Queue: 2 jobs
Job 1
Amino acid sequence: MSSKILIIGAGGQIGSELTYKLRQMYGEENVIATDINRNNSDLVNSGTFEILDAKDYEGVKKCVETYNIDTVYLMAAMLSATGEKFPEEAWNLNMDSLFHVLNLAKGKLIKKVFWPSSIAVFGPTTPTKYTPQYTTTEPKTVYGITKQVGERWCEYYHDKYDVDVRSIRYPGIISWKTIPGGGTTDYAVEIYHEAVKTKSYNCFLKEDTELPMMFMDDAIKATVDIMMAEPETVKIRSSYNLAAISFTPKEVAASIKKYIPDFKINYVPDYRQDIADSWPKSINDSYARQDWNWKHSFLLEDITKEMIFQLRKTYKAISRTS
Ligand code: AKB
């Protein structure tokens, strides 16, 4: 079945790689990438791209109608760390954009919606080890509140209005193509960039802060898998727990040292430490594994090998052109 796809927030860390993957799968002409700016030039130059503000209902509707869209991936969001600096803006962006897309689906202008949730729905009262799907969710960040409330709305629109909305709770995502912005788990990407560029990193979390993490290829696979699953197998319509691995800054540093033996790390915890301390250390994702056969592939050693290999190529190419 052919699909016309709109990606909102396509310039971001996950949005950009999702766009490349969906273009491979469905053809460049069937995947419309949009974002609030043209900053990601690789993405802008690699297929149809439109400027779109996720908060602008009329703009989103016009894009859906112009391109005859049936599926929307809503990837625009303000993440945990930036959200604490701009609480109202985070609330407005994260909630308005979700309502716009859910309402378009309720009005049958689109058939299917993907909306990402996060481990940020959990809080200090959640069990931290192997956190279950159904448990206490009392988030401490504005971002976490928007994700927790968003999950409730997704389930509500599915149950009351038959909206086919699908969602996963992403852990921290590690990737080399597009840098993340404004998250608490961003250290796990920055550390590789700094290791390759300068052989040293000032980490904003303490050395023993364990968090759930995942390589981008696994995150994209999970996103595609849940969207391709038969509707009756997607039994949870709020959001699925999703897991791959968990590690601490000290453990990533040790794995980097195998490739860059003189790599140095300093620990300079800031306000993001409190956010990380309120999140789980590991996640039980057995429902995703049961319902739509989720399985991760990348372990920490695989991620480190790939990150260092790719970033060495990237920075060599940059130094050649500068
Ligand atoms: C963040 O750190 O805010 C995000 C997330 C875990 O959702 N990467």
Note: The mean pLDDT is 97.
Job 2
Amino acid sequence: MGRTRTVGSVILRLDTIPSTNGLASTLAASGCPDGTVVVAGMQTSGRGRLGRHWHSGCGGLWFSVVLRPRLSPRTAQVLTFLGAVAAARALKSLGVPVELKWPNDLVWRGRKMGGILTESVVSGGRMKYAVTGIGINVSGGSADLPAEIRGSAVTASSATGKPVEAGALLRRILSNMDALYSRLGGPGGPKALVEEWGVLAEGAGKRVVLQEGGRRWEGTVSGFGADGSLIMLTGKGEKKVFHSGDVTVLKKVP
Ligand code: BT5
């Protein structure tokens, strides 16, 4: 007998709300089913990490998924990878070239096409639930993006050179997420997901600068931990493990 679908079994669609992560968290706290999805046409207070603003006008795909995995709170980053792998595969299946960048970016030619935000609630040392929010700039060209991000962002349509339909993209991401989520609970699930993420990611073996909490480290990415951390080998030959931060890939000096 086939498995019943989890991610996308319940989908709530709204025109304009402050943040799909906000509404999904409220629903999660009041006991909504695992895999509940909230999609919005626009967000008025879309959020990124560390309280950053996420521009979410029309022309994008903005949604959040409530997840109730049996994961240790330390491995919440793996849920961001789950969203990233699902989104990258869906984009590629629609002809959109995309790469993943640690910890939560979908990029094309160094420009940000999308971002993922996982917020989790921990109780008694266990992850009670998490909300994984995905934002992707879908239609229009760079002129349609807000001025502040025009130079650093990109839309899926401009990366592929033809229109991309947000509804089709959402369906494919949700079905990918559902398949990945069902495997996450199995033995070695998080490790396998981190490996799949690594295949689609830029950065491994490259020189990077990582900034976190006002500090800056430079080194070579030697790999990614099973909990989704980034492992760096610094110039002094020291191994450092990061659980958060912003990464810039350094260009090779010719
Ligand atoms: C992220 O944060 O990349 C996570 C974005 C998650 C957005 C989704 S949309 C659905 C759900 N509901 C929410 O409220 N959020 C989630 P971070 O790595 O901190 O990147 C934020 C930075 O990206 C900002 O400071 C800007 O520089 C840039 N940015 C903002 N809006 C953007 C956009 N639409 N496209 C590309 N870059 C953007």
Note: The pocket of biotinyl-5-AMP is lined by residues 19-21, 43, 46-49, 52, 54-56, 62-64, 104, 112, 115-117, 133-135, 137, 149, 153 (CB under 6 Å).
